[in-house]
């Protein structure tokens, strides 16, 4: 098994968020245009989606080459992007790509829920090195994150079904990122109470 390698945090963030930002830029530039390819008309949203899929796969591959590690969450996300993004392009129907965040967050919530039912925190396996916590802290954080993912899945369904594509793209690009950041910032008291220093609490 290859040993994990550390890379610059800025580079890692750029590789993880780059495809999302590129999708947003492509959508803004192409949203009012229609393209005819092989006799079929495609809206700008579909073409932006078509570009997002390989870009995400490329940046994920680069992350693996540089770090020799890709999390299960990143792999699951890439698979769902290929499936739902591919359906969007193949069927020329933007609804499939809009459903993708719902599928991703529902899957994550289900996985965390199964772990909780087994008395385990699967989240700990993913973040333990970055956020060392006592077991009780991991269980609380996992329960909160599971409910948070359920909320995001429901919110995504409401937005894409009732609002404009522009609103959904803004929500996907900025809203989800800000919401996840805000969620972890809001866990400050939990991190302080259950956090471990140097992986081990004194006493």
Automatic annotation (TrEMBL):
Q: Which GO cellular component does the record give, naming just one?
A: plasma membrane
Regarding the membrane, this protein is recorded as: Multi-pass membrane protein
What are the subcellular locations of this protein? Answer: Cell inner membrane
Pfam families, alphabetized: IspA
Keyword field contains Membrane: yes
Which positions carry the signal peptide feature in this UniProt record? none
Spans traversing the lipid bilayer: 12-30, 45-66, 73-91, 103-123, 144-163, 169-186
The alphabetical list of record keywords is: Cell inner membrane, Cell membrane, Membrane, Transmembrane, Transmembrane helix
User: What domain of life?
Assistant: Bacteria
Is Nucleus set as a keyword in this record? no
Q: Which family does it belong to?
A: Belongs to the YciB family.
Described purpose of this protein according to its UniProt entry: Plays a role in cell envelope biogenesis, maintenance of cell envelope integrity and membrane homeostasis.
| UniProt protein name | Inner membrane-spanning protein YciB
Q: Which organism is it from?
A: Rhodovulum kholense
């Amino acid at each position: 098994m290859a040993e994990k390698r550390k890379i610059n945090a800025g580079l890692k963030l750029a590789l993880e968020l780059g495809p999302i930002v590129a999708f947003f830029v492509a959508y803004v530039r192409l949203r009012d245009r229609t393209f005819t390819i092989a006799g079929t008309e495609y809206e700008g949203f579909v073409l932006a989606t078509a570009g997002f899929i390989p870009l995400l796969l490329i940046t994920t591959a680069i992350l693996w080459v540089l770090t020799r590690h890709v999390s299960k969450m990143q792999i699951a996300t890439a698979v769902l992007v290929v499936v739902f993004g591919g359906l969007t392009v193949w069927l020329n129907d933007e609804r499939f790509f809009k459903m993708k965040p719902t599928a991703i967050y529902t899957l994550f919530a289900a996985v965390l829920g199964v772990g909780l039912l087994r008395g385990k925190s699967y989240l700990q396996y993913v973040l333990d090195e970055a956020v060392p916590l006592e077991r009780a802290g991991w269980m609380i954080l996992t329960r909160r994150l599971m409910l948070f993912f359920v909320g995001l899945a429901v919110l995504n369904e409401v937005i894409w079904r009732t609002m404009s594509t522009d609103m959904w793209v803004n929500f996907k690009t900025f809203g989800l990122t800000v919401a996840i950041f805000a969620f972890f910032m809001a866990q400050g008291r939990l991190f302080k109470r259950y956090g471990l220093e140097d992986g081990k609490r004194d006493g």
